[in-house]
Every structure is written in structure tokens, then in C-alpha cells.
Specification:
Radius of gyration: 31 Å
Shape: globular
Helix content: under 10%
Strand content: over 45%
Number of helices: 7
Oligomer: single chain
């Protein structure tokens, strides 16, 4: 059953007598909606890109998942909805579920607002609140604000668990809310007495309730809901938003028709209506009525005449199609009719897509498999199965029921067949041919650049780095010959603890913003625009962009710089390696000495892009360590390897998966060094 009808009955009992008629003034339950732009929600800075529509056994909901510092959104129905009713009392209710709190700050807020103008809530970056609404405006009727540890909150924000909230700004009135739990807020607003009778509940369990006196001067007409997420990566669900009022005359509300199940040709709908109303259905000439007591307000209807709610197998029954019309009556009142077209065809799933996420010399490639259910009714869980058939008659590789995002590495030339499947839907099969051989034709390896090469590129020696890269000590390798055995107190197992070679004395070279007359970094490796910031090369590590504009860094912050390799096409690939967050995620090989570690690439492969696509460098905290160029065999581009010499004996060695490995004591296999393959036989 849709959660809305579970707590609407509580709302009715909370505010209205059994004989009263209820009129919906505004409703948003997200049923039949496939895109957030179809709702009245918006994010001031994220647009609709941070919203998604999800479906489950309770119906359809909206999820808001913002990014970074900009993390507020609002739904705005406007004050005219309430004013037009001319009611002395009206009700506002909504459901929410914090799937994840923020993991860094404690700033979550839920507010029922009463501002007359949406622009004061924020419809652009200029007007965005992205802060506590209650602290910035008096036009609100109910507020829950997350408390930090100094004001009665938990010790630290967390993505999960329980967090404390102040009700209506009163830190002495605290309510505890748990991530992953669905809560409902019911408000009865008296426009004469200027009171808000509020109740927060979880199912049938009351969390808190009281009456709040609205101060004079505050508009009493609710106009929307404001939400602020906490940094970073909050995820917030909203559902069943309703504005309603009691009226003296008979009134029948339009029923809600919700698709709840698809099983081949069978469709199952929940049709919900209010207590006291009578439901009417018409389908292909047959009419049906139902009373509230027959189904507790939720009538289950199917186009399968032999529908069995307990069946868990694939349906093979003949199911009809046609037009389902639903309406309600309340005494003499008749609601508007809602019409739903019933389609009994088997819904074909979209084909899986395969995008290259790693390219190595030869035919070897890694593909990331994606099955997108965004445009599929009910958004079923989709699975991907694949079969790879080598062109040389080698062993066939097969796997079944993989989730979207799984990867497959194709070692040789051949055909990859992909099949998407989901219970109750039609499977779809597609294929791709892996038949293009690639050569590594160039490399920009910052770990092997000499002082002379760095200076030749226009960078000047700037002492040793004194920044997070050197201070954090996150660039390190393990001394393979120096370790101790230590018992793990939690697991009881004995761990091998290796001594680290930490790279902290990092020579730095700088090219100031005023010295950039073009966008060229080295050879064909370029920025997409001439830098307005200082650029650094940390020797044996990589390329780092500064955060503020100008030689003296007095200008505004920049978000990203973008690099690319000139002269490439969409038929080529560029493999970018980097480290993030001042060294987090860097490679930590086992070596004999720091000198052995220094000329090795220290970044993981971050992404593989088409030759024409730029790669973003986040200011300050991302370091570009290596750029490898792969082109189809037979292509000549003139791009040279950037290392100490054409055949540098200290150049890094890669296996055919593109992973940098130690060049000493290599096991048997095929490797790449200085852009050329070589074979190790044991």
C-alpha cells in the first residue's frame, strides 16, 4: 500500500471529524512521473540533475542526492492554493526518509515555508539559500534543524545512524531521527488562532507532537517545503505531499491509480480512495464498485481475470488491454474521472551498453557494462549476462546475472554478446565486435621527467613542496625487505606490517599564471584554455593546478582545469592516471628502496577517454601522474614518449592490463616498456 494512505488516515483522525468532507488542495505523490522536471521540486544550483524517481512495493518516490556545498532544494506550490480555499483551517502533510545523512557536517533541515515568492527560496545560484532557512527568513510554519554536538546533537555527523533535531528552533525540544526510516509530518494550521498543531510519526508510532504558536507578522499560508542536506553526499527521499482542508459541502476526491506490478502481460494496480467515498471502475464495458471497508481504501485491480496475488512464477495467462476509468462518489458528489490505458504487451528491456574503461596494447580491453532502467516501467532490477567468443576459437568466457556497472576484460579479438533480463520483462540481446588492435604510441610520465625536461617545458625550480602532498605522507611504497609480524587484536590473525618509504621531500617546479603564453604543458599535452593559475610539477609525482587565480593567488577560486592531448580523434584513447585528495588512492608498490619507487607511476588509472575528450583536474587535490596514448595499429601521430630517453632503462613497465608493475623479477608474460612490447620467458 502507498505510504500516503497509511498516514492520511492518521491525519484525518488527528484533525477532522468522521462526518467531514476532505478536499485535496494540492497533491504530489510522484505516481506516473518519470522525470523530476515534471514535479514542482527544484534545486537552485543543481537543477534536476540531482533528483531521481524510484519505485518499490510502496509506490513511487523522489530522491534528492546533491553534491558538494550546494545541497538545498524546495517544492513550491504557492500560497494561492491555500488562499483560494478560504478555509479557517487546513492541513499539510509529507513523508521523508534520510537514506543518508551528510558525513561531514550536521546541517540537515526540513522546513514548511510560507514565503509568497519562490525567488526568495532560491531558483538560481544567486538566490540559492544553501543554508538554514529558519536563520534567514521568518516565513516558516514548521522546522526541523539538525543539531551539532555543541547544541545537543551527536558527537559527529554520519551517513547512517541517529541524529538529533530541534523542533521549530527550540533546542530544548529535541527529536531523534534515524537514517533509512520513513517519517511523516502532519500539520493542522489554524489561520485564525495562528497555530500549527504538528505531529511527526513513524508508521503508527508517534515521534513528537505539540502546538506551535506562529508569531505575528509571519504569513500563515503555507507555500512549499524547503530541504537542506548536510555535507557531504546526503541522500533524501520525499513522498506523498498533500495540502487539504475540511469543507462543509459534500466532496469526492479523485482516486489515485498506481501501477504496482508487471509480470509479462499482466498488470496490477492499486487504486486508493478515502474513507466515506465509494470507488467506481469501468473497464471495457464492465463496471465495478468498492466501499472503503471492503479494502481499507486500497483496491487491487488487474487486467488478468485469473489474477493470483500469491503467484510468484512468470505469468502466461491471457491478459486484456483497454481503458480503465476510475472515479469516486461521496453522497451526491462525484469526482473527476481518471483514465489509464492498460497495455498488455510484454515490455522489452533496453539493451546493455558497454563502454571501454581500460585499453592495453593489442586487443585487450576492459568494458564496463551498464543496464539503464530509467525509462522502464516500474524500474525493475536488471541483470546482464555475457558470452565472449574469441575469434581464434579459444575458450568461450561466460557469466550470468551481473549487476549494472560490472566489468569484463576481453583478452583477444572476438565477439561479446550481452543480454539484459528482469523477471516479468522481455530480455534483449546485443553484441559488439572487439576487433581493433591498439598500440601505445606515446606517454607523458611525470614520474620520469628530469629537471632539464621540466625546465624545458617552462617550469622553474621552486624549492621543495610544502603542501598537503608533502605534509600528509600519502605518497609511499613498502620496503619489501623490512617488515614485522603483528597480531591483529580484532581478528586474532597475525598481520605482516611493512616499513614504508615515504616520499615527503618533493622537489617542486612552478610555472606562474603570468608565464603561460599558451596552453601547452609538454609537447601535445595541453590545457583546454590558457591557465589563469599557477601550475606545479612535483618531481617524480605529477601535475597539480593551483586553487586561486594570479601569480600571488589573490584572485577567485577556480573549480577545475582540463587537459587533453592534441592531434587525437575519437578513434584513439587516452588513459589518464592520477591520485586524488592529496595522495589518497595512490599506488603503493613493494620495492627495495625509495630510489626504485621514485620513477614509477604513483597514480591509479582514473579514466579512459576518447582522444578528443578533456580530463578534469580538480584544483589542488588531484595530481595528474601519467597520460598514455593508444591508437589503432597503423596510425602514425608523431607523439613521442616523454621520458629521460627514447629507451630509458628506468622507464615504467606495464602489463597488458595497463597496470604499472615492478620491472624486476617479472613473471613470464608480455609487457610494455617505452611504448614497446617485450616478452619475458621463464
Amino acid at each position: 500500500m502507498k505510504k500516503f494512505y497509511l498516514f492520511l488516515s492518521a491525519l484525518i483522525a488527528f484533525t477532522l471529524s468522521a462526518s467531514a468532507s476532505i478536499k485535496y488542495l494540492y497533491q504530489q505523490n510522484f505516481e506516473g512521473i518519470t522525470d523530476a522536471s515534471q514535479t514542482d521540486f527544484c534545486s537552485p544550483t543543481g537543477g534536476y540533475g540531482w533528483f531521481s524517481i524510484i519505485s518499490n512495493d510502496a509506490g513511487t518516490s523522489l530522491v534528492f542526492t546533491p553534491s558538494g556545498n550546494d545541497r538545498s532544494c524546495n517544492i513550491f506550490w504557492g500560497q494561492d492554493v491555500v488562499k483560494a480555499a478560504k478555509a479557517s483551517t487546513y492541513n499539510v502533510s509529507f513523508g521523508f526518509n534520510a537514506k543518508n545523512w551528510g558525513n561531514n557536517h550536521q546541517t540537515t533541515e526540513y522546513t514548511v515555508i510560507s514565503t509568497a515568492d519562490r525567488t526568495t527560496v532560491g531558483t538560481s545560484a544567486k538566490n540559492a539559500y544553501n543554508g538554514n532557512y529558519r536563520a534567514k527568513s521568518n516565513d516558516w510554519l514548521f522546522d526541523l534543524t539538525q543539531l551539532d554536538s555543541k547544541n545537543g546533537g551527536k558527537d559527529a555527523a554520519s551517513a547512517e545512524g541517529i541524529q538529533n533535531f530541534a523542533v521549530n528552533g527550540d533546542s530544548a525540544n529535541i527529536v531523534s531521527l534515524t537514517a533509512g526510516t520513513f517519517y511523516t509530518v502532519n500539520l493542522t494550521i489554524d489561520t485564525i488562532a495562528r497555530t500549527v498543531e504538528y505531529k511527526v510519526s513513524h508508521g503508527n508510532d508517534e515521534v513528537t507532537s505539540a502546538v506551535y504558536q506562529v508569531p505575528e507578522g509571519v504569513d500563515i499560508n503555507a507555500s512549499g517545503i524547503y530541504f537542506l542536506g548536510a555535507r557531504y553526499n546526503p541522500s533524501q527521499l520525499f513522498d506523498d505531499i498533500l495540502v487539504s482542508t475540511k469543507i462543509d459541502e459534500d466532496y469526492a476526491n479523485v482516486p489515485t491509480v498506481t501501477l504496482m506490478g508487471i509480470n509479462n502481460k499482466q498488470r496490477v494496480y492499486n487504486i486508493s480512495f478515502l474513507e466515506g467515498e465509494t470507488l467506481h471502475l469501468s473497464y471495457n464495458g464492465d463496471e465495478t464498485t468498492a466501499e472503503y471497508g471492503d479494502c481499507d481504501g486500497t483496491y487491487v485491480w488487474s487486467n488478468n481475470p485469473d489474477y493470483n496475488p500469491d503467484n510468484e512464477d512468470a505469468v502466461t495467462d491471457e491478459c486484456s488491454n483497454g481503458e480503465l476509468v476510475a472515479w469516486t462518489t461521496y453522497n451526491e458528489a462525484v469526482s473527476d474521472k481518471v483514465s489509464t490505458q492498460i497495455d498488455n504487451s510484454i515490455i522489452q528491456l533496453p539493451a546493455a551498453t558497454a563502454s571501454i574503461s581500460q585499453v592495453s596494447p593489442g586487443y585487450s580491453k576492459t568494458y564496463t557494462l551498464t543496464a539503464n532502467n530509467d525509462d522502464v516501467a516500474m524500474k525493475p532490477k536488471m541483470f546482464i549476462s555475457y558470452t565472449f567468443t574469441p575469434a581464434d576459437g579459444g575458450e568461450v568466457i561466460e557469466k550470468e546475472d551481473l549487476s549494472s556497472g560490472a566489468t569484463v576484460t576481453l583478452p583477444t579479438k572476438g565477439t561479446l554478446e550481452l543480454t539484459t533480463s528482469a523477471f516479468g520483462y522481455g530480455s534483449t540481446t546485443t553484441s559488439l565486435v572487439n576487433d581493433i588492435e591498439y598500440n601505445q604510441t606515446g606517454e607523458y610520465n611525470f614520474a620520469t621527467l628530469t629537471d632539464a625536461q621540466i625546465v624545458a617545458a617552462g617550469f622553474s625550480a621552486d624549492g621543495n613542496a610544502a603542501d598537503k602532498w608533502s605534509d600528509y605522507g600519502r605518497i609511499y611504497s613498502y620496503d619489501k625487505n623490512n617488515f614485522t609480524m603483528k597480531e591483529n587484536a580484532e581478528t586474532g590473525k597475525v598481520d605482516t606490517v611493512y616499513t614504508q618509504f615515504v616520499y615527503k621531500e618533493i622537489p617542486m617546479f612552478t610555472k606562474k599564471s603570468s608565464e603561460w603564453t599558451d596552453s601547452v604543458i609538454i609537447d601535445r599535452l595541453v590545457f583546454t584554455a590558457k591557465p589563469a593559475v599557477n601550475i606545479h610539477i612535483h618531481k617524480n609525482l605529477g601535475l597539480i593546478t593551483e586553487g586561486r587565480k594570479g601569480d600571488d593567488m589573490s584572485g577567485n577560486w577556480i573549480s577545475n582545469s582540463y587537459v587533453k592531448v592534441n592531434g587525437l580523434t575519437d578513434n584513439d584513447f587516452v588513459v589518464y592516471s592520477s591520485t586524488g585528495n592529496y595522495g589518497d588512492g595512490s599506488l603503493h608498490p613493494y620495492v627495495n628502496s625509495l630510489d626504485e619507487f621514485l620513477p614509477q607511476d604513483k597514480g591509479n588509472v582514473t579514466t579512459v577517454l576518447k582522444g578528443s575528450e578533456p580530463f578534469p583536474l580538480l584544483r589542488m587535490s588531484v595530481c595528474l601522474t601519467n597520460v598514455r596514448i593508444l591508437r589503432p595499429v597503423g596510425t602514425v601521430d608523431g607523439i613521442s614518449n616523454v621520458s629521460t630517453s627514447e629507451n630509458d632503462v628506468n622507464a615504467p613497465v606495464y602489463n597488458l592490463a595497463g597496470v604499472c608493475v615492478s620491472g624486476k623479477n617479472l613473471p613470464a608474460g608480455v609487457y610494455v616498456k617505452n611504448g614497446k612490447k617485450f616478452i619475458v620467458n621463464k
